Structure formats: C-alpha cells, structure tokens
Amino acid sequence: MHTNKQILFFLVCISFLLNALHAWGAQSDSLVLSCGLEDGGTDMYGRKWAPDSKYLNGSNSITIRAGFQDPSLLSEIPYMTARIFTSEATYKFQVKTDKRYWLRLHFYPSAYGNFNPADSYFSVTVNGLTLLKNFSASITCEALSQAYIVREYSLAPLDSKTLTVIFKPSSSFAFVNGIEVIEMPDLFDSAKMVGTSDQIDVKGVHSQTMYRLNVAGQFIPPTNDSGLTRTWYDDLPYLNGAQLGTTNAISQNVKIQYKSMPAYVAPVEVYSSSRSMGVNKAINEGFNLTWVFQVDPNSTYLLRFHFCDFYYSKPNQLVFSIFVNNQTAEATADVIGWSGGKAVPTYQDYMTYFTDASGDQKLWVALHPTDETRPEYFDVIINGLEIFKLSDTTGNLAGPNPKPSPMLLQYEAVEKSSFKKSDTSKAKVIGGAVGGAAAFGILAALVFVVYQRKRQIYGTESQTSSWLPIYGNSHTSGSKSTISGKSNASSNISALAQGLCRHFSLAEIKKVTKNFDERQQLTEKSDVYSFGVVLFEVLCARPALNPSLPKEQVSLADWALNCKRKGVLDDIIDPNIKGKIHPECLKKFADTAEKCLAEVGYERPSMGDVLWNLEFALQLQDNNEDSNHSSQCGESSTSDESPKNDTMAMHRKNLSIESEHETSDESIETSAIFSQIVNPKGR
Ligand SMILES: *[C@@H]1O[C@H](CO)[C@@H](O)[C@H](O)[C@H]1NC(C)=O
Ligand SMILES: *[C@@H]1O[C@H](CO)[C@@H](O)[C@H](O)[C@H]1NC(C)=O
Ligand SMILES: *[C@@H]1O[C@H](CO)[C@@H](O)[C@H](O)[C@H]1NC(C)=O
Ligand SMILES: *[C@@H]1O[C@H](CO)[C@@H](O)[C@H](O)[C@H]1NC(C)=O
Ligand SMILES: *[C@@H]1O[C@H](CO)[C@@H](O)[C@H](O)[C@H]1NC(C)=O
Ligand SMILES: *[C@@H]1O[C@H](CO)[C@@H](O)[C@H](O)[C@H]1NC(C)=O
To answer: What segment(s) does the record annotate as region Disordered (predicted)?
Structure first.
C-alpha cells in the first residue's frame, strides 16, 4: 500500500514536471517581434517583444519611428516603430511541420517621416496563402474608427519547416509594426453548416479572427487569456437595438469547472459573465437579442458560441434558438444539455457562407427563447462569441478594404454642423500647448482635448454601430465623451478595445474646428474643465472614458471626484507614481483638478491659476524630496531661511485656488516661479 502511494506520488510529480516542460517548450516557440525596434522591450501588459531583424531577408527596409503617439496606444511597443518596405521583403520563421500557428500582424498607420500611410497599399502572403491584398491599413483603421489594427490568423499546418511571410508593396511602400508567430493547439474540429444538417470538417482550415467577444464581460488582455495570448472585447458595441437584455455575473461560491473541453478554449473570465433577456416572458417574446457585425462579403465564416450556465443545473430549464443571418443555426439550444452541469463551460461551432444579399456587409446573430421543448424558463444565455473568416479553396483570406460606414460619415457631418451652434450644444473644444510641470515627470507636453456632451442623435434606438463602437453607442452609460491627445500614460491598466475607440487625429480636429476657429463662442472656462479631465488622466494613467469598467467608473471625471471626496483617491492613481508622489503634492494636484471640474463655469479657476497651482504642487514635491534627502532639515525646515523656503512659506499663506477675480496680481509678480506665466516666452 505504502509503496503504491509513493509511486503514485512520484508519477504525479513526473507528469507535473512534463507539463511544466511542455509549457516552457511552447513558450520558447513564441516569436513576438517588434519590427524595427533594435533592442526589443515590454508592452503595457508586460509582454516581451524581441527585435525582428534576424528573421528578415532583404536590405530594402527602413526603420522609422512614428511621429505621433495616439492616446489609445498605451505603450510605445510595438506600435511606435515600424519597418517600412519599398520593395518585396521576406521574413522567415522556423516552425514545426505539423503544428498550427497564430500569425498576428500589427499595423499602426501613422506618419513615418516622409512616408504617408495613406499612400501605402500592399499584400502579405505566407507560404502561398494570401492574407492581405491591396491592403490599406489607413483606410481600414479609418473605417473601423481605430488607431491601429491587429490582424490575427490561425494557420493550419503548412507542411513546411519554414513560414515565409512576404510583404509586397503594390504602391509606394508596405509596413508592419509587430509580428507574432506562436504555436497553438488545434482549435477547430467540425462545424454545423447553417441551413443544413451537415457537419463540416474544419480541422485543416486557415482562419482570420474577425471578432472575439467576452459577452457581458470586460476586456481581457493577451496576458490574461488562458494561454493563447488572445484579446477579448466587450460585446456591447455590437448589440443591435435598444434591448440589451440583462447581464449576469457568476457568484463567488460557484466555480467554473472545465470538464470535456480544455481550458485554453476560453479563459474563466469569459464563462463567468453572461447575457440573457430578463425575467419577463412577455417582453422576451417580443424581441431577439441581436448582434450585428461588419464582415467581408462572399466568404465563409465560423461562429463559435461560448456557453456556461452558472444558475440552472438541469436540462430543459432554459432552451432557446440561435439565428445566424436570419437562418436557424440551432432550433433548441440547451446549455446544460450540452455541458452536463452547472458552471461547466461548453461551446458550439456553426458555419455560414455570407453572400451579403442586402449589400450592407452585416452579419446578424440573434437569440430567441423557444417553447418547442416546453422549458421551465423563457430566456436565452450566451457567454462569449468568436467569429472567424475561413480561407477559400484558392487559399485566399484577403478581403476588400472596408468603406467608412454611412453612420461614420453622418457622424462627421453632424460634428461639423454642431460646432457652428456650439452655445446650444454645449460642445467644448480646447486646443492648446500646455507647458506646465508635474513633479513626477508625466506631464503631457502637448494636449488636445475634445470634450463634448453626447447629443441626442446617439440616443436613438434604431442605430447600429459597427463603427464607433464605444462612443457612438446609445447603450454606454457615460453621457460624456472625451477624446484626449497625447498623454504619456505609462500604464498597464485595462483599456478596453484601445483600438476600438474613436480617436481624432489633430488633422481631423483642425478640420472640424476650422483650425481652432475662435478590426466657436466657447468660454475659456470650458477649456479649464477639459484640462481638469486631462489632469486626472495624467494622475490616474487611464483614459477619460473606459466603458469596460463598472458603470460608476466609466467616466474618469466622475469617478476621480467621487474617490477624492471619499478620501480614497490614493487607490486609483497610477501605480507607478504611488508612494513616490508626496501626499501634499498629490493633494494640491487633485484639488486643482477638482476645481477645474466645477459644474459651473465661473467656479472654475483661470488657466493662469491652474498653472500657478501646478507649479506649487511641483514645489511641494521638490521640497519634500529635498528634505527627505538631508536629515538636518527635517522638522525645522520651515524656519530655514533659504530663498526656496521663503517662497514656500509665501505659498502656504497665500496660495489657494480661487476664481480669477479674487487672485491678486501682485502676489504673482513677487514670485520667481511664476516668471513663465508672466512672460509667455519663458516656455
Ligand atoms: C534572401 O532570399 C533569397 C531567395 O530566397 C536568397 O536567394 C537570398 O540569398 C536571401 N538573402 C539572404 C541575405 O538571406
Ligand atoms: C460577391 O459575389 C457576387 C456574386 O458572385 C458578386 O456579384 C459580388 O460582386 C461579390 N462581391 C464582392 C465584394 O466580391
Ligand atoms: C435579417 O433581418 C433583419 C430584420 O429582422 C434585416 O434588417 C437584415 O437585413 C436581415 N439580414 C440578412 C442578412 O438577411
Ligand atoms: C428573431 O429572428 C428570427 C430570424 O431572423 C426571425 O425569424 C424572428 O421573427 C425574430 N423574432 C423576433 C421576435 O424579432
Ligand atoms: C485598392 O483599394 C482601394 C481602396 O479600397 C480601391 O479604391 C482600389 O480600387 C483597389 N485596387 C485594386 C487593384 O483592387
Ligand atoms: C489580469 O490578471 C491579473 C492577475 O490575475 C489581474 O490582476 C488583472 O486585473 C487582470 N486584468 C484584467 C483586465 O482582467
């Protein structure tokens, strides 16, 4: 008996070790390359990116840094450097002949020196398979309202020891910012063809990921995936119509249990949240829970539905129908029937050939309860959804460049006209170079902020929003939309769908404001409000709006003020400066930001006052750092007669944020640190 147990223990240990080795082996097969970056580096999620040069064949490439960091890029790596090809260039990667691989291509269509991404059209092939053809990253990003795009392909075994990825410019130049080649398990088996009863074998297909959604859940970064470095997005932007159903979250005492499927299929987070219709049968009868996706026409798609019911535990408690493009994919979907139990995840694959009969390139997915099997409840449930485009028989995955949707064009038209009557629409635009200083060296050098109240047009129910998924959607709880310019947020926060947010380029802002016309009758005080938002963005290293967060946290302005008033601002500031920023400095900085955000314009300080107070915050930080370093200062520092402390003492007496009318001009003139305000050429 005893020996048996020991042997068993030994075997368990061995298998544990083998697993660990296997995991390590898989890891070492990963190539995560930042193109044109000489030494590699780490991105916002802590992923390591290596240089690409040793895999590249061809001396016709140029390495260039982007001139502008879009605010949705939370770190410089891999997007701020690009490799530009003026003629055909080849990457070669050693792979195993019998394994499936992720190939991810990252594109950030920004200006690179004299290279204008709008001129760039190119193709990308891998071992004869066409991934991109006449591809314009610039047009694609514009149409999708994204700053950058990641194209993710899952390549079936190519029967070759080398993956040969060829970039070929069809005009001007080709470029790429990042390349990932990562071994992966076989994700696909067979799928049911919608409209038939056929199961189609999809083991050997190549696919392109179109959408990957954590339904009713949050953005999941690659580092939080279940081992396959996938990115999962919130489904809200794709929901169609006004009926969003309800969202459900697993309770703490229920644990997700993977039974018949491996955990890499999708992470626990995906199965821990679900969307359903609600409890009212009469209401549920009247609508379909519907998502709409923009896809390329004339292609085959595989849709993977992820399910996990963490409420019910018996078959036929909850049964519903699944429609894909208005065809019945599944008449009686029964999650517990499939999974075998409560909190056990399962998934179903369906295939459809999308011809685009209506011409609007929209793929519809809908769920509706069914009475067919007389289930106990009249509801639906879904936890995750992935949509893959499958390669055709000629080995082609490329589609046409998308066209900006009529909605996007309409939006831009509305934007333009709204600026003309801005006093009624409350639109506020600030453009300005702000040269203040914050002690911790994370101050934005140049900030452009567009702050605007979302107008009624977005509150209408009928819209679909495959474009502008975040800000244009009527369902997001925030009523404000703030788009900020370059902010040096060095952070690892979860930014939902960075790529999915609409970010305005400087050129666009200039266009709609008539050069600051005066996948405007604005008051100075509106500027001050916007700047207050920027201050909190800098302090908390997160965007002004993050719809992936819980409702009360979506708007940074509201959330930060709330935290400040509760005295817990410390909890939400950038971890990188936490502990380094002196409490007094933090207080001054936050007070300043708070004042800027006063509801009524006349309560907000003048920009001069703001700068003044930021300078003061800087002094508080510097001073406290000094006294920390030299022990003899300590408690007695206030009696020190150095000029610096004189200034400080004066500040302590006089400085507080007042409205501009109460600010004494004389006190400004007496202080050297305000020279830069008094003399605008100072900075
Ligand atoms: C690049 O590839 C071509 C064709 O495959 C080959 O002839 C050439 O030697 C390669 N050059 C380098 C530097 O590897
Ligand atoms: C899709 O196929 C139809 C019929 O063959 C054709 O008329 C249409 O132009 C195709 N669309 C695209 C975008 O290729
Ligand atoms: C599906 O039905 C909706 C209306 O219910 C319609 O607007 C849409 O165009 C249809 N989609 C397809 C692909 O037929
Ligand atoms: C739900 O969608 C299906 C397929 O498009 C359609 O036949 C049905 O009428 C829809 N039901 C409701 C209530 O909209
Ligand atoms: C390339 O794409 C552009 C933009 O979508 C399109 O106008 C042009 O006709 C395409 N060219 C070819 C050869 O397909
Ligand atoms: C990712 O995982 C880490 C560690 O489990 C967790 O702290 C973090 O909140 C997760 N991030 C997101 C966006 O889920």
So the answer is: 624-683
